[in-house]
């Protein structure tokens, strides 16, 4: 199955370089490019990509606002692509807010080519790009600046079983399904089931949103 990708970045050379690299992969099809967020949203609406590579900082409309429009579309718009944020900075509150909005992760622009290709495949598969330690540090750093949420997040947590809360905690610490299975002495398929139930009960799109929720609700305390 071919993954359809669009690239949204205000630097033409970046767009061209990423497009050439991805188009060389037999399982990836670059279906368009855009120089700013507004044109990126319009392009996505027309081409229905599986993954949008979205620069964080752009003129006209930045990547955060564009990601919000793609991930929380108006009534009547059913297509919601996966969004992978591109940034020059390893800690950027724009990226944090994008993860909250439903972006599937972020990647540094100077990452090795193999990492970019792998990131597109991971996000296209429906998973979140949370393996790099910098992503966990980003979320932890900005969660420190916000007190643990009260009210609705706490109430939503009550829907989880004790085991599901354990799984959420380990997801938030960046553990893979295999690592969670080993820690809790469970089958990996059982872990996948627990993760799916956690996302459904908390009304979260993917593991990226689960990590953010875990920090903001106080399930995980930064620095522990």
What does this protein structure show overall?
The chain is an alpha/beta fold and 224 residues long. It is 51% helix and 12% strand.
Helix/strand layout:
Blueprint: E1 3-8, H1 12-23, E2 28-34, H2 37-47, E3 51-55, H3 63-71, E4 82-87, H4 93-101, E5 105-108, H5 113-124, H6 133-144, H7 152-157, H8 162-172, H9 177-184, H10 188-201, H11 207-216
Helix pairs in contact: 2-3, 3-4, 4-11, 6-11, 8-10, 8-11, 9-10
Q: How is this structure best summarized?
A:
This protein is an alpha/beta fold. It has helices at residues 12-23, 37-47, 63-71, 93-101, 113-124, 133-144, 152-157, 162-172, 177-184, 188-201, 207-216; strands at 3-8, 28-34, 51-55, 82-87, 105-108. It has eleven helices and five strands, in the order βαβαβαβαβααααααα.
Q: Tags for this entry?
A:
51% helix, 11 helices, 12% strand, 224 residues
Shape: globular
Tally of strands: 5
Low-confidence stretches: none
Q: β content, as a range?
A: 5-15%
Radius of gyration based on Cα positions: 17 Å
Distance between the termini: 41 Å
What's the mean pLDDT score? 85
Strand order of the largest sheet: 2-1-3-4-5
For the largest beta-sheet, the strand count, sense and barrel status come to:
5 strands, parallel
Give the helix tally.
11
Give the helices and strands as they follow along the chain. Answer: EHEHEHEHEHHHHHHH
Classify the helix fraction into a percent range.
40-55%
Which structural class fits the helix and strand makeup? alpha/beta
